[in-house]
Request: fold
Amino acid sequence: KRRQHRSIPSPPGLPIIGNLHQLGDLPHRSLWKLSKEYGPVMLLKLGKVPTIILSSSETAKQALRDHDLHCCTRPSLAGGRELSYNNRDISFSPYNDYWKELRKLCTREIFSAKRINSTQPIKDEEVKKMIHSIAESASRKTPVNLNEKCLALSVSIVCRTAFGVIFEGNVLSNDRFNKLIREAFEMLGSFSASDFIPYIGWIIDRLTGMQGRREKTGQDLDAFYEQIIDLHKEEKEVGSEDFVDLLLKLEKEEAVVGNDKFTRNNTKAILMDILLAGIETSSGTMTWAMAELARNPRVMRKVQSEIRNKFGKRELISLEDIDQLQYLRMVIKETYRLHPLAPLLLPREVMTEFEIDGYKIQPKTHIHVNIWAIGRDPNIWKDPEEFLPERFFDSKIDTKGQSFELLAFGSGRRICPGMYMGETMVEFGLANMLYHFDWQLQEGMEVEDIDMEECLGFSAGKKNGLLLLPVKYLDH
Ligand code: HEM
Reply:
């Protein structure tokens, strides 16, 4: 009760910009350090915007479970607005009837286990292609860039299963596409002055070139969606339509979703969600897992033995097989703990006042949950900096949104709807890469030389290429 009258701990800021300068290049790390001094509920002023940072599993639980309904809308931010055709997608839409209906529709048509499992033959084909291309590098004894391999795998799986198009030879070149996705992520992840600094913020965005980059990224992505839509011009037989056909049908019928008449912009906004939310997250998780395994040869040997001893000689480790791979699952959980791809989740905005730890949180305040900090909390995890999958042995902690120690997919109403799609892609890709190849460091390199630098901004992917030498297992 006494605490209710205290103000929320808050690091001192500067006039106009408040605490913006304290975010640094890697905000999740800067905020983690600040939280050690100011505690698990911390109030920052980002320019004019009050922002709460939650850095413990207990405070995350209070916000995302106990008070989810008070804070499950999203703030409208310049980057998201530009790329989502004015928040017409799922991720950036405010909490309203449009979001509810759209999320339901996408869950039924694309995210459900039934839909995902029905696309397994496509995934089998794409994983076989990947194994084949890695095997070529193995026979030439040339290293493989795992960032690129994992990205190519998620791009081709998502483009084929969700958009019904084969990526290679049909849409953008690999290089241009990868750059575009990276740039889009940076746009969504960077703090934009116009969101936080009244009156002059938009001038700053113009002077720094931020506004120009945002518009260019928006235009390039728009051209990409046009290509996908063009590939869907021909009418298909009933029953053979894919997800894009369904969206185009909604447009044609002038369907009303929530209170919004469904137009071409709605279609494109939804394509953006799948593209940006689905590809980098899955490929980034696979890359981090491979980097950690390369740095921890004991764990690498153990996970490979599990897969190889269970299944003997196989062309492909199938999705059903993966149910038996308990240690692989632990390796993936440990990767989510240390390298969550959305380390601050997506921002939420408070709709009605509520309390966390006795502190009053006011409407319009933004909320970030620092799951990167929670993954390193020594009160929860013994030796938190160590990659130790065994910590999940006999543990009930999972990533489904009820274990607030491990929130890689978020929790509450805004939990990631693509969780099953993402998890199966990661498990399937990793199981096969680990089964078919041994992975060696390049000559002259030691495990300590593997760099673990993160990308700038809000998505914490691996910044530099992970180059490892594949050696075909069955040739041994
Ligand atoms: C390993 C893979 C993935 C990870 C780690 C991941 C993680 C996340 C996280 C942390 C959020 C924010 C949750 C919150 O704010 O509480 C999110 C939201 C979202 N994700 Fe994922 N995701 C993955 C895969 C996917 C895939 C494959 C798709 C779709 C193809 C997808 C679509 C979405 C969408 C649409 C949202 C916004 C949900 C909303 O605001 O209602 N994700 N994801």
The mean pLDDT is 92. The first strand starts at residue 41 and ends at 46. The pocket of protoporphyrin IX containing FE is lined by residues 90-91, 103, 273-274, 277-278, 281-282, 285, 341-342, 345-346, 408-410, 414-418, 421-422, 426 (CB under 6 Å).
